[in-house]
Specification:
Blueprint (H helix, E strand, L loop, with lengths): L10 H71 L2 H9 L3 H6 L6 H6 L3 E5 L5 E6 L2 E2 L4 H5 L4 H9 L7 E7 L2 E9 L17 E7 L2 H10 L3 E5 L10 E4 L6 E6 L3 H44 L4 H17 L3 E5 L5 E4 L2 H6 L3 H4 L4 H4 L1 E2 L4 H6 L9 E6 L5 E10 L5 E7 L1 H15 L9 H13 L8 E9 L1 H8 L1 H18 L5 E6 L2 E6 L5 H16 L2 E3 L2 E3 L2 E9 L6 H17 L5 E3 L2 H22 L3 E10 L5 E12 L3 E3 L1 H11 L2 H16 L7 E5 L2 H5 L3 H12 L6 E5 L2 H5 L1 H14 L2 E7 L6 H6 L4 E4 L1 H5 L6 H15 L3 E5 L4 H9 L4 E3 L7 E2 H8 L12
Parallel strand pairs: 21-22, 24-26, 26-27, 27-28, 28-29, 29-30, 30-31
Antiparallel strand pairs: 1-2, 1-6, 2-3, 4-5, 5-6, 7-9, 8-9, 10-11, 10-15, 12-13, 13-14, 14-15, 16-18, 16-21, 17-18, 19-20, 23-24, 23-31, 23-32, 24-25
Helix pairs in contact: 1-8, 16-17, 17-18, 20-21, 22-24, 24-26
This protein binds ligand C2E and calcium ion (2 copies).
One calcium ion binds next to strand 28.
Length: 861
Amino acid sequence: MPNTTRTTSSPSSSRSSVALTRASLFKFLWLLVGVFFLASYLLVYLANDLDRTEEAESAFYTRKAVQSLEKSLLSTVKDYAFWGDTYRQLHTQVDIDWAYVRQNVGPTLFTDFGFEGMFVVNDSNRTVYAVVKGELKPVDASQWLKQSTGAILERARAGAEAEIPTSAFINIGGVPALVVAAAITPGTDPTVLRDGRVPSVLIFVDILEPAKLEALGQDYGVDDLRVATPDELYDPSVFSLGENGSAGTLHWSPPEPGQRLLGLGLPLVGFAALLVCLMTWVILRRTTASAQALDASYASLQHSQMALAISEARFRDVVEASSDWVWEIDADWRFIYLSERFEDVTGLSRDLWIGAAMDDLLRTELGTVSQWLSIPSRRPNISVQCRYVDTKGQERITRVSARKMAGGGFRGTATDVTEEVEARRRIEFLSQHDALTGLPNRTRLQEFLDGKLKASPTVEHPLVMLSLDLDRFKPVNDLLGHAAGDFVLNEVSNRLAECIRHGDLVARIGGDEFVLILTDLRSQEEVETLCRRLIESVERPIQIDEQQVFVSTSIGIAMAPNDASEASELLRYADIALYESKSSGRNTWRFYAGDMNAKIIERRRLERDLRFAIKHNELRLHFQPRFRIADGQMVGAEALVRWQHPERGLIAPDTFISIAEETGLIISLSNWVIETACHHAVLWPEHLFVSVNLSPSEFKRGNLIQRVQTALHDSGIDPARVELEITESVMLEDATGALEVMHRLKRLGVRIAMDDFGTGYSSLSYLRTFPFDGLKIDRSFLNRLAESDDDKSIIQAIVGLGQALSLTVTAEGIETAEHLNLLKAVACDEGQGYFLSRPLDNEAFSTLVGARTVAGTDSKV
Ligand code: C2E
Ligand code: CA
Ligand code: CA
């Protein structure tokens, strides 16, 4: 096994060589790091040193500046004090005119030299002459200086003989000031003689205001010279004035060339370091790679007999531990090796198969394995799915991968993927099929439809889409439970599937909605034949346990390309046609027609208008009298709603009741009917009752009882004079709920009649279990009377039944005298119909019965 030996190359040798390269590079890296650290350190040191020197220099210049200021002041005071004229005019006597007015020792000292204060203190230490900021002021020197002048006067007088002035830094209200003083002497004037008195003293005061300090500093190249703030007192760049800094401390900003050097130098060093690191890294990588390559080639030279042995043992372990089996074939496609796992996985014997042709065991989807292996362009890392039959005779799927061996033949592995493939197939199936019936679902339908539409159906070979919806399915679910519902759906699915040809499609796309796609139907007749077959097939009773269940279906038909050639449109049109077929009595089919869409739009408009109508009093109530058949006496009347549409005129309830039911408007409509009916009926003679139709959907809403109660209460009518007509469908949909509601209605005192008896299930058990007071035979029985005698006997039977259950039986739709006679003959209790009276508007009916009139009540009708 030459290709497995590569992994046996001695790991220690490989590690040492690579490690060596790395180690030396790391050493070099550490050296570099050291160098950079040293460079940075030196830079910082240099910068600090530079700054320190600069600092010392600026301190020197600051001192120099202060000294020179002191010197210049001393020399100025000398000029003025050691002068004969001064001696004469300010010591011997004080001549203000000479000194101030003629400006000999006056305002010019302030304007030219900036001395804020100038004083002459006489021999008895009294201030005899004072000029403050250039103005003559009668102030005392020590007062103005806010401190005693004793010491300085003493020093000045001590220097009188040798003509030496004195100076001192003091602090005046937080601002440092330089005071110079000198005893007044005749100087070199030979004409003036000293008088032997204690000499007077001349004092100049220079207050070191910020501007002055700044200018002083500037003269000596010192920046920002000013009085130090308390925070700056401990900075290196300070200079104390006076004894122990009593006059204040000066502060300046020394230039910091070192900091500037650092600002520039450090990033430069950092950048250089980064660059070197990066380069080292690149070198490290390169050298490691080449070292590895070196190692690899070195190691491959090293494989020994022992490495080979280890490798083989390892290979065996891996092979037997894996769930795959390993095979080898020779150049004649015969097995020369099969791993032990082969027997576990396939159940087949290794001994039997070694030497046998691989093609006898495995087949690919397209042909034999040898064919696949011989494909010149076959890539070695692509596997192929193969089938074989295991010992139990079951077909299994395995994924085979193969590599060519050096000496001819192939070797590879085989992985069992039977379960995986099966699971994937199931998932795929489930995603495209309905779980309950196994029929294709909407996704599959869409795919199928798209495929068929791509083939561009023609008028001669149209694509026919049927949209089906079960009628009367909901009651099955509600009455018999969901298991029964599921059973029915499954049964219907089977029947639908039976009716279509191979290659067509039945899909379940909703609860009881199906779509059929057919491509083999040529003419309308053929489509209709199929529809008929479908309906008949669905209509056949379905047996569930002891029960027989009946459902039917309505069908809508749309065709491509005639109606549409897009899937979504086709579906919509088939749906519209279905809707149409449902509204035209169910259990039938309708082809899509262009105006159906218009009809739906029209319906929407009606819905909107109806909403408005209920609110704006467009509804009207008509009353159709009901008579006792035996003596022709009127016993009551049925309230029938109409809609006085502003444009369409009077609309019959058939047109809008269903819309009201679908949209929920039925509640407010019915409220209006019940209330209005009661309000009118209360005015009728007391022996007449009023009968009101209820819609099944009202039964499902909780508040029916409350609504009826309110109407009864508000009108004040005797509940016994009110009858409610309900149809069988109420019980079909929710029998227990209906029973409960009916009992509660009965407790209000109203009567309940079953309307349209004979059109629905006509279950006798309903009549027995539910608290009905009467039943109304549907008018279709009388309509058909002329055609068949059966209906006559049915009418007779119903009347008999009603009487047996003590129900008042009413016949509807009495249109002729014959009808009436027949009903008389079978002793039917009551009747209504055009022959007796058409529905009348309120006015006509009131007149007919001689109703009381109460002002205002007519407005409702
Ligand atoms: P229905 O309850 O069966 O009402 C009797 C229908 O038969 C009325 O039609 C009435 O005009 C008609 N009719 C009466 N005598 C004859 C006759 O001799 N021959 C024929 N061919 N027809 C006759 P209408 O007023 O058009 O009402 C139709 C349906 O609308 C009613 O059928 C009822 O189901 C519903 N409806 C009417 N008013 C209301 C209402 O206020 N609420 C509810 N929920 N439904 C109502
Ligand atoms: Ca009715
Ligand atoms: Ca009826």
